[in-house]
Amino acid sequence: MSDTPESPRRGIKSFVVRAGRMGTGQIKALAELGPRYVLPFQAGRTLDPAAVFGRQAPLVFEIGFGMGGATAQIAQTLPDHDFIGCEVHEPGVGALLKLIGEQQIENIRIFQHDAVEVLEQMIAPASLAGVHIFFPDPWHKKRHNKRRLIQPDFVAKLVRHIAPGGYLHCATDWEPYAQQMLEVLAAEPLLQNTAADYAEKPSYRPLTKFENRGLKLGHGVWDLVFRKR
Q1: 137 catalytic per annotation
Q2: Of 2, 5, 54, 123, which residue is least crowded by CB atoms under 10 Å?
Q3: What is the CATH number of the domain that holds 165?
Q4: pTM for this entry
Q5: Pairwise CA distance, residues 151 & 181, whole Å
Q6: Would the annotation count 117 as a binding residue?
Q7: Are 194 and 188 in contact (CB under 8 A)?
Q8: Could you say which residues bind substrate here (predicted)?
Q9: What is the pLDDT of residue 48?
Q10: Which of 3, 48, 80, 137 is catalytic?
């Protein structure tokens, strides 16, 4: 996606396409494990998680998993949950597939597709136990703030797919975006904050190398955990 202003007619996108090199391990993982763990996007066809995973389990949906390290760790920390991750960045998909193969993780499946379309077209209403959105693009420049993922219209759409009592967990290392997230989520009538404002980092979310380095330099990280009423 370019940095030119978006047309008002264009819908929300959960991603920005970026170039990236593929390592040999990632290429091999895509070829060998992609057919099993990467799900095809099929517009209008509702996903059957029990058929995909071979069991009934709480389903967590992650938007933009990057290189997949945190996703793999969370899936291993919560083996009684199943995880659907959306990421359009092919090196990231390859990296997560490589981890799945190396660590024999069976409770992750991937969509290499825009998460907004996957939600709208393939995820049943009130079917998600949780949604993870970790470190989405903060679009630092003020004129680009409208491109941020966490906006009232998107959150309203997202909440429809979360089951009552399910949660939405967002995290960012950009304080102005954290403030916007808090404002937007608090204004959604179907969501209730689990904290007075920002939440303590839940134990299941691991610290990334980037985050750990930032914390040592005194940079902040803000977690927000809201539950659906």
Answers
A1: yes
A2: 2
A3: 3.40.50.150
A4: 0.90
A5: 8
A6: no
A7: no
A8: 141, 173, 208-211
A9: 98
A10: 137
Three-class DSSP category at 174 = coil
Q: How far apart are CA 82 and CA 71, in angstroms?
A: 11
Asked if residue 1 has pLDDT above 80, the reply is no
Per the structure, the count of domains in the chain is 1
Residue 128 has pLDDT above 80, yes or no: yes
C-alpha 138/C-alpha 170 separation (Å) is 12
For tokens 């069976």, name the residue: 106
Element (H, E) at 47: none
- Which amino acid, 186? A
Q: Which domain holds residue 121?
A: 54-86+109-228
Q: Is 141 annotated as a binding residue?
A: yes
Residue 42 located in a structural domain: no
70 in any annotated domain: yes
Taking the C-alpha atoms of residue 26 and residue 168, their distance in angstroms, rounded to an integer, is 30
Token readout for 156 is 């309203």
Residue 4 has pLDDT above 50, yes or no: no
User: Please, are residues 111 and 38 in contact by the beta-carbon 8 Å criterion?
Assistant: yes
User: 114: annotated binding-site residue?
Assistant: yes
| 155 inside domain | yes
Nearest to 171 by CA among 139, 142, 143, 136: 136
pLDDT of 7 reads 38
